[in-house]
Amino acid sequence: MKRFMGLIVSIALLVAMLAGCAGTPKASSSESPNPASSVTEADKSGKNEQEMKKWPRTYVDTLGRKVVLEKKPEKVALLFFRNFEHLFLLGESPVAATDINVLGEWESLAPYKNNAIADLGSITSPNIEKLLGVDPDLIIVVSSRYESYGDKLEQIAPVITVDSNENNWQGALREYGIIFGKEQKAEDEIARIEAFVAKSREQLKAYNDKSFGVTMLGDKQYWAYTTQFVFNKDSGLGLNPPSHYVDMSKKGEQISQEGLAVMNPDYMFVADLGGSSQKLYSYLKNLESEPVWNSLDAVKNKHMYPLDSSIAAGGPLGIELGVKTIVKNVLSQ
Predict the structure, then answer these.
(1) pLDDT of residue 21
(2) Mean predicted confidence (pLDDT) in 84-96
(3) Please, what's the b/e burial string for 138-161 (b: 16 or more CB within 10 A of its CB; e: otherwise)?
(4) What per-residue confidence (pLDDT) applies to 39?
(5) Helix, coil or strand: residue 192
(6) Most buried residue among 26, 231, 305, 308 by CB atoms closer than 10 A?
(7) Beta partners for residue 223, in sequence order
(8) DSSP character for 193?
(9) How far apart are CA 28 and CA 23, in angstroms?
(10) For residues 278 and 254, is the Cβ–Cβ distance under 8 A?
(11) How many whole angstroms from its chain centre is CA 34?
């Protein structure tokens, strides 16, 4: 019996010792900081310090005006609809803007159409009273409009003027990178889109013997466009325009239906001149009864395709979508 009791006592002592050992690491871990969380907090602190070092900064705008940005702009009013894409691509969104109808019209902007953006009306006559109510910390306006109402804007918030940059989306994106302190983000997106265009150019090399045209349609209007992302041999898709195409040094020219027939491209991409996809399909429906239109090789061979009207703005998202649309339709033949 004594041996039995001794055995029980020994077992009890052993269990107690093991329990004590098992509890030691737990107590130790609660007292010591988690190395992983410490690194994360340090990283966050480092990023915050880097962000603070970016401000204040002085930005010289298109008109040569020096604008002091005390901190990263958070409430931006954009009075130039062509630059929606640049802000969105950088992960920014204006709190107010003119011509916000394009958010519902352009497929390139579809992911952002429900963003909370106050409607300031038209770029030609923005609603100054409504803009005042928004209380922006920065206003961005295209330089050609500054003389019209720039002095009124200056009374509300700092104003930065930008160039139209119709054929230089990279330069425009870099400028917005500076404004928002996102220079590296801008460079990353430029590299990504340029690589995508270069890859697409290689995919379309097999069509070097074909001609392509870009036509903007209006109410009995035809504009032959020289969109650079379509025709430029170095930075675009390098597609060949028809032999009788318009002057490639210009953005485009208005032509007649007969003039379009003389060009007669093998492939033709069309978009609405006013930026409305609904109107585009209405124009195309009306053209179904036009003999000259139906004589075009692209129409007869079903090589005529719609493009999103955002291509006319020359922004990065519109170009990316335009390239995807062209490649998809041409390679599907």
Answers:
(1) 41
(2) 97
(3) bbbbbbebbeebbeebeebbbbbb
(4) 55
(5) helix
(6) 308
(7) 216, 254
(8) H
(9) 9
(10) no
(11) 40
